[in-house]
Amino acid sequence: MPDYGHTLSFGAFLTPQADDPQRVVALAQASERHGLDLVTFQDHPYQPSFLDTWTLLSWVAASTQRVQLAGNVLNLPLRPPAVLAKAAASLDLLSGGRVALGLGSGAFWDAIVAMGAPRMTPGQAVTALDEGIDVIRGLWDTDTRGVLRAGGGYHGVDGAKRGPAPAHDIPIWLGAYKPRMLGLVGRKADGWLPSLGYLQPGDLAAGNARIDEAAAEAGRDPREIRRLLNLGGITAASIDDWVDELLPMVLEDGVSTLVLGSDDERALALFGEELAPALREAVASERRAAGTTTGAVRSAASLAKRAPGIDYDAIPPALADLVVEPGDRGYGAVRSTYIWAGSPGLVVQPRDAAGVAEAVRFARTQDVPFAVRSGGHGIAGRSTNDGGIVIDLGALDSIEVLDPDRRVVRLGAGAHWGDVAATLSPLGMAISSGDYGDVGVGGLVVAGGQGLLGRSYGLTLDHVVAAEVVLADGSLVRASADEHPDLLWAVRGAGAAVGIVVSVDVEAAPVGDVVLATFVYDATDTAALLVAWADQVERSPWELTSFLTLVPARRDQPAIAQAMTVWAGDDTEAAVAALDPFMAVGPVLQQQANLLPYSGVMQAHHARHEGGAPANIRGGLVEHVTPRVAGVLADLLAAHESPMLQLRAVGGAVNATPADATAYAHRTQNFSLSAITTASGRAALDRRWDQLSDDVTGVYRSFDLGDDRLERAYPPATLARLRTVAATYDPDGIFGHDLPVHVPR
Q1: How many angstroms separate the CA atoms of 91 and 58, rounded?
Q2: Mean pLDDT of the chain
Q3: Residues 6+ apart with CB under 8 A from 209
Q4: 299 — phi, psi (to 5°)?
Q5: Three-state DSSP class for residue 723
Q6: What DSSP string runs through 293-320?
Q7: Domains of the chain
Q8: How many helices, marked H, and strands, marked E, lie in the chain?
Q9: Of 78, 366, 518, 609, which is the most buried if we count CB atoms within 10 A?
């Protein structure tokens, strides 16, 4: 296999001289400026005239923007692999995924021993490197649960905690020449990095053959392994001669990364600006003529985990680098949501609206379900699946103030509300948006948006003035009062049923600091507490919004209720007057209040989603929390039929919007109820919820999994209108599988 089809890249191999430390940094910066893709440094820790290579890599990472960085190659005997794994992952995270790990088994053993490392024979050094790779990769593997036990007699860890995971798949390249080291490259490495000066004619071909043989024996595709080569310097008289000299190395010896060993900026400029484009053009021409297959190659282990029903070979080229499959590193971070564990066959992560459109066109041709995810925090679990496709909007996370005077803000669907709050708070603006900052814009805004500013502001969707929507046919349209107003109406409350909302324009409220008060009550007399709290909420000015969360009694404590209450303004005297009556609604165990920016209430933690046991949730909207409603909820809590019960205030400005203004039509209720249980507790919760059937006059679609939730989410007139809109924009019923609004044909 003379040409492995890898994309060509070009790098610099610099000497880390300590006598003029800024010169090597300047050369690294110049390498980037001259178009090189990679900057590498020698690593000889025992050499007193050299800088420490890892310190230099870190400094250069902070001094550059684009280039990949690596040791060439790092001396493993003097760099414990467990510590090196953390150092590499840390630098990769800090640099935005620009680290590669070049490793060597060690040379100059007298100097290594003088630095305190034990002497090894060549065979022992190879074994130690083999063990070290397992340790490094194991510590990066945060998708695998449990501590790491790996390595062996030279580099062993027993119970090490994994992490952090690097920002990308850090490739491990080995400097290798002898058969056993070449075999290790084939079995475990991502690249072979020899120096041309140490090779004899035919050594590249022989080395490739040994690597390929070892790869095949390990069940790997030899194309998984990149072939790199350090060049000693410029040897040709002209660029054409240089191309002629290097072209056979690419086409016959499979070399795809050429690294120039030079500390002369003129040579680096010539290499990056003239040789690199000329060689790329020559290689591309030869590959076209030969029909060479190019591009990334997935491992055999990864291919074996692909899901049936998905034509992976048909993934559009524009999405090829934006997908995560079950066998990929990082799959564990994208497979599940906050609540639900999933096992999708493909996660597509578009970077823009055009990518979302491409993903929709592909997904609808596949014989599997597909889901759409913005923040992945939805309790109802509609943003992952098993064996299907997930379109992950996380990269569409822009936050842009379009009109400061009108406070119109454009939000990408993948943005998190905590980040929105952090951007808007310094500008004296806020958008009411749930009660947790990790929630994504897209999922919340198309469902409603019951937030902690809700009684003063309304639902989040009440202030959406425009939206960009990808439709079922892959087209991108703008919905506003002037363009597709029927689609804008549907987006606000039923967006998931008509398309994928990729951005929204929202009118923010003029909000500076707010008062956040937290009351913790003894909820032993649950029914009385609920009635008193709800009555006081309804009596309060619209500036006050309160969410009450209850948990059942435990062995060592009574039932507890926590009220999270926000006064939408910085008038502390008015806030105290409104909050003081809440001290009397039940026995207060704890209470505190703070004046802070809304961004202090709504913070994004960007926590990794691991999923868990499938949740079951029942919800409902009620006009008032009557003694009968409170009694049913109290019995539910006392019977431990739900580990968490929540009541959200949704009156005030929410109900000031006409019922027919949006697809969210529930404009008379003052409270939103929700209760969570496990799969085994679903029947009991359903029976209890049936007792509320006369009181529940609607449901918030994100907080209910009842069989009749479609009719309760959308009253008859709303549902009829929604079906008309859906038939226009999604005639084949591609969207809304979780809550189908389409009339079966």
Answers
A1: 7
A2: 94
A3: none
A4: -70, 160
A5: helix
A6: --S----HHHHTTPPTT--GGGS-GGGG
A7: 9-290 (3.20.20.30), 301-392 (3.30.43.10), 513-716 (3.40.462.20)
A8: 24, 30
A9: 609
Residue 126 pLDDT exceeds 60: yes
DSSP string, 19-48: SSHHHHHHHHHHHHHTT-SEEEE---TT-T
For residue 86, which of 140, 147, 143, 149 has the smallest C-alpha distance? 140
Q: In degrees to the nearest 10, what's the CA dihedral of 188, 189, 190, 192?
A: -140
Q: How would DSSP label each residue in 531-555?
A: HHHHHHHHHS-TTEEEEEEEE--BT
Amino acid sitting at position 678: T
pLDDT band at 294 (very low <50, low <70, confident <90, very high): confident
Alpha carbons 168 and 739: distance in angstroms, whole number:
36
228 backbone dihedrals φ, ψ, rounded to 5°? -110, 160
What would the mean pLDDT of 515-535 be, rounded to a whole number? 98
pLDDT tens digit sequence for 454-464:
999 999 999 99
Of 4, 2, 1, the residue nearest 190 (C-alpha): 4
Q: Which amino acid is at 427?
A: L
Cβ atoms of 567 and 542 within 8 Å: the answer is no
Please state, in angstroms and rounded to a whole number, the distance separating the CA atoms of residues 416 and 422.
Answer: 10
Which pLDDT value is given to residue 1? 63
Tokens of 29: 């910066």
Query: What's the pLDDT band for 709 if we cut at 50, 70, 90?
Result: confident
Q: Are strands 644-649 and 544-551 parallel, antiparallel or unpaired?
A: antiparallel
| Residues making up the chain, counted from first to last | 745
- Give the pLDDT band (50/70/90) at residue 743: low
670 phi/psi in degrees, rounded to 5: -105, -15
Residues 541, 574: Cα–Cα separation, whole Å: 10
d(Cα 680, Cα 639) in Å, to the nearest integer?
14
pLDDT digits (tens, 9 = 90+) for 8-54: 999 999 999 999 999 999 999 999 999 999 999 999 999 999 999 99
For residue 82, pLDDT beyond 70: yes
pLDDT score for 131: 98
> Residue holding tokens 């990308």?
168
Using the predicted structure, report yes or no on whether residue 690 has a pLDDT greater than 90.
Answer: yes
| CA–CA dist 279, 277 (Å, integer) | 6
Helix (H) / strand (E) element for 207: namely helix 203-217
Rounded-to-integer distance, Cα 420 and Cα 412, Å: 10
